[in-house]
Amino acid sequence: MDFDDLDEEIEKRVEAGEEVACKVIENLQPVKGTTLPLMTRSLKLPDFSRLPAAKKKALPPYNGQSVPPREPVLRLLCIHGAADSYAADWCVLENEAPPNVEVAMHEFPGHGHRDTEDFLTTLDDLVDDCFDAFKDAMNTGAFAFLGHSIGALMAIKVAKRARAELGVEPVLVVMLERGAAQHPLFTDSGAQWLRDDPVTFFEVWNPTIFKLYKSAGEVGARTLKMWATDQIMDQDAIEVGYHRFKCPMLAVGAELSWRTWVKLDEATPEVKEWIKTKATIGAYMKEKEDKIFHGHFPEWTYEGWQEWTEHPAGCRIVECKEANHMDIKINPHFTTELWKTLKQVTDAF
């Protein structure tokens, strides 16, 4: 095998996800602490200009206020979860960031202002789209990841590619409202039900979405399809060892996810029947002392994030008070914890 053949073999192995010891990637990032130019925005990485008019009116400069000065030394790259969008408060998080942090969010095809595009149906296709959105930002400055729900799974895969293809690493990874990646969301039978008959699945799993489907015509049908398409990807658990971060991690769960239990002896017969049927879907809806867990991922599943970093600080696990699965990203308890943690990172630059 000559050198050309060796290079070709290395490239094949890297593309397949293998970490090849002799493969050297030049890191193009400036020294940490350097003030970075603002990120280039796009369809995949939107800014306020792409928001609906009503949402714009609450944000500068569209609300008449000056745009706050921003001299970032760190980029916080966010990946939203199922059926979410930039307009659904991620833009608020971006606006509230401290001056030395710039926040940007990858918007999925078919979501938000990309609603004319087809939904992507596999996690790897979404990761490809996300990597393309973040590539320049990762390659040219210090960055952290914030993955919400299925975005936590995507953050792992984007980071693995960033190491292999760009030679760069995040300085912090925040996993928001998802148990560790090795845990699927549904039972096998529940996931199959979602694939085969999403309408009846959501009648049990998320009655609010089912009611919207029944009452809102095309909008309701599209919303249910979005939820079904996205949530089946939350079943794509990733085995421990697939990738290990070199940075510290922060895993945050919402109180109203962790502390949600139904007391069977206090439930009506209808609620009791519904919750027991739902328990056949959710992987963690286990009965305990006449109660059934009714949340997203229970607290104990977050402990597994410790296995996803080799940094001495490990993964800190925090419960966010007064938050639910969707509103946690702008919950003041969470944002206070987030900005405090990022300050600790940037102070160490």
From TrEMBL:
| Pfam families listed in its UniProt record | Thioesterase
Q: Where is the Thioesterase domain?
A: 75-177
Biological process according to GO:
lipid biosynthetic process
TM segments?
none
Q: Which family does it belong to?
A: Belongs to the thioesterase family.
By what name is this protein known?
Gramicidin S biosynthesis protein GrsT
Q: Which organism is it from?
A: Cladocopium goreaui
Q: What is the lineage of its organism?
A: Eukaryota, Sar, Alveolata, Dinophyceae, Suessiales
